[in-house]
Input
Amino acid sequence: MNNEPTKERIRGIDTIRGLIMVIMTLDHSRDFLHFQGPAYAPTNMATTTVILFFTRWVTHFCAPTFVLLSGVSAFLAGLRRSRSELTGFLFTRGLWLILTDLLVISLLFTFDGRYHVFVLEVLWAIGCSMVLLALLVWLGASRLLIGVLGCVLVFGHNLLDYAHIPQGGVGGNLMTLFLTGRGAVIPLWGDRIVVLLYSALPWSGMLLIGYVLGSLYRPDFDAARRRRVLLRVGCGVIGLFILVRWINGYGDPAPWAAQRNAAHTVLSFLNATKQPPSLLYVSMTIGPVLVLLAWVDRMQNRFTSFCTVYGNVPYFYFIVHLCLLRALNILLIPASGLGFISNGDPLVWQAKGFGFPLWMCYGYWVFVVVALYLPCQWYGKYKRTHRKWWLSYL
Output
């Protein structure tokens, strides 16, 4: 894949991935540095403002896009590997991401070196998805079968909204872990627990669909045709969201409703359920992303080059930006005249009364993104000029 068209295709993917990483930083800046409490919940229709809601809503595009493009990357990785090599890569890469959540992200979120709390979030979901894809590749599953399974997981998951799901016990905890988790707490041994933020299988559907989507980026695939397919499918998915959301029946456990004014009614319409990702949440986010992929496919300018710097090193940026935000979080607590007294939330580890207005969080967001530009640029160049095996995992 050394010809120019292939580089252009990958560049378009990295542009979107980088844009998503930048937007993700806004959400994490709000998580770590904004005021906390019910009054500042961005999706609480009774108290939220339009700017606060859309600060959160725009970041809804991050996780689905990241998972989808991980599937695309898995397909592209398979172009350079045999089936057995791809199986091994996906399996070990998936386990590595799961371990990252258990050991690195859990520590960053809790500051508990004895690991009383294990956090499972987006890296866990992507890791499980890659392990599932590795199994399917190993079994020789066709792209059609992989795509059908992905669609079943995405379109059919909300059938569980009408089912009785057992709570507790081994069976109930496994159902929660892989299918229905919504910020669930799962006990382990002693006083250790798992805090589940992402249930595995609903997110796996997007990665499997992304794997099939990756076939559009084969070197021999016509670029103009790829753009037409992405545009038509993206518009179709957007139309699906509008139609099904308007009907207000299947596709999301939280129906929209008329609010105190027209603006908040629109917010309610857009307030789809992220955990676990509903059909409407997926269609609301993936549809515009497919259109955007078609749009940037042949675009190259300063903005796309800027985004590509981050998109080239997604794992590196994800870990480092969380470390930087956590460092800011810790330094700003005493700078605000507060003591290091936890508010009781093991995932945020904020002092009581700590937080800044939303406009200041936007400032810290810009600071983090700009501060990491040169490190990401350096590491991206290092990856391109070195062929060490471990670079595929970092």
